[in-house]
């Protein structure tokens, strides 16, 4: 059974989500503060985390960061703010999706199912699992990027985005196409999501090779450019 960790300091919200998620055949564990959330994640080993941002003892941003340091399990952030800044920061820390309070419980279960569906294939072997271009190696089964033999630490969605672009090198994709292919057609975010992930990738891999680069095609989108010999 799929296990979900619900983290919110509001007991009534936790109990409501627990009821609806259990009715959808998920196993649910509850944590009410940030410190408890990190401990529960280590012990419970959930398949997905519903994580409120405003938490006592340790906020949701810190919890998200700590989880990402040890796991690529999907995280859906819950925020009452709905601010663009919040979303950008969450994406940079490795969040997979957002839900804004007040929310409908049916929306929550739909988002959970959608994120689990998108991420369930992370460990599946694929014919084109590992891509090697010059000094760059991207492995989806290991969820690892290596440049000149050195592992580059990136969140799962950044790796998936780079893997997709590199597997279609020199092809230009619009932001909407990348949202569709990497995040899934049912993702409810906007094109800024792609920009944030590209920016973060560039901070880590730019100027690593004279053969390949992440390139912006102004007015269109992005491509992974590989120079012909």
What's a quick, concise take on this entry?
The chain is an alpha/beta fold and 229 residues long. It is built from eight helices and twelve strands. It has a five-stranded parallel β-sheet with strand order 2-1-3-4-5, with helices on both faces. The protein has a four-stranded antiparallel β-sheet with strand order 6-7-8-9, with helices on one face.
General description of the model:
- By secondary structure, the protein is α/β, with parallel strands linked by helices.
- The protein has two domains: 3-119, Response regulator (Rossmann fold, 3-Layer(aba) Sandwich); 130-226, Winged helix-like DNA-binding domain superfamily/Winged helix DNA-binding domain (Arc Repressor Mutant, subunit A, Orthogonal Bundle), CATH 1.10.10.10.
- It is 41% helix and 23% strand.
- The protein has eight helices and twelve strands.
- It has a five-stranded parallel beta sheet with strand order 2-1-3-4-5, sandwiched between helices.
- Helix 6 crosses helix 7 and helix 6 (156-167) crosses helix 8.
- The longest helix is centred in the middle third of the chain and has 15 residues, at 105-119.
- It starts with a strand and ends with a strand.
- Residues 122-127 have low confidence and may be disordered.
Relevant terms:
single chain, 229 residues, alpha/beta, Rossmann fold, Arc Repressor Mutant, subunit A, 2 domains, 5-stranded parallel sheet, 8 helices, 12 strands, elongated
